[in-house]
Q: What sequence folds into this?
């Protein structure tokens, strides 16, 4: 059963990651009571740390499900295309981007699942990273594989949650022939919510 300290599949947190508990609690309190939102992706801390290591300034990134990750990603890459299904959040984020004068984000409001997961407008082998945290995630995983450059990555958040991600994690693992050297599972606390989450990062070669 899903709990604060285990994933939907019942996996717990590595002991070393409990050192992040005070930070996670502090950020969650700030969000809930002061309405101050962490300027970090709301994904496992270890996942955002890893993405920070691999992303390069010349990268092209596609994001499905805009969030606190959007500006964070844009600050680290060349171009970012981001699809968002919630109109209020889209407008909020659009205003933030304008206020910060960020000019490398192509933010799009798209609420239809079939359009959020259709990447046909982009050439194959175009993106260095596709970041999936919204939309029909399993279908996004299927359609993402051909759009990634060799050596690029696909990140799937909530990869343990079949209600959100379906068989997305399994499909990504199969895409790299279940090579453990190409698959990273991150289970850690997340900013803004005092709980742990799972995300999976797969390198496409």
A:
């Amino acid at each position: 059963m899903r709990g604060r300290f285990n994933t939907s599949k019942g996996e717990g947190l590595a002991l070393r990651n409990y050192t992040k508990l005070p930070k996670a609690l502090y950020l969650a309190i700030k969000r809930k009571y002061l309405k101050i939102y962490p300027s970090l992706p709301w994904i496992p801390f270890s996942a955002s740390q890893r993405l920070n290591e691999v992303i390069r300034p010349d990268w092209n990134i596609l994001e499905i499900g805009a969030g606190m990750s959007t500006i964070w990603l844009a600050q680290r890459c060349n171009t970012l295309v981001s699809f968002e299904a919630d109109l209020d959040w889209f407008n909020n984020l659009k205003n933030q981007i304008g206020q910060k004068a960020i000019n490398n984000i192509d933010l799009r409001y798209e609420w239809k699942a079939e359009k959020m997961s259709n990447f046909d407008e982009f050439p194959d082998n175009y993106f260095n990273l596709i970041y999936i945290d919204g939309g029909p995630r399993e279908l996004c995983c299927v359609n993402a594989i051909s759009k990634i450059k060799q050596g690029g990555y696909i990140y799937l958040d909530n990869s343990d949650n079949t209600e959100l991600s379906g068989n997305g994690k399994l499909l990504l693992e199969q895409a790299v022939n279940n090579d453990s050297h190409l698959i990273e599972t991150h289970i850690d606390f997340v900013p803004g919510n005092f709980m742990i989450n799972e995300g999976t990062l797969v390198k496409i070669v």
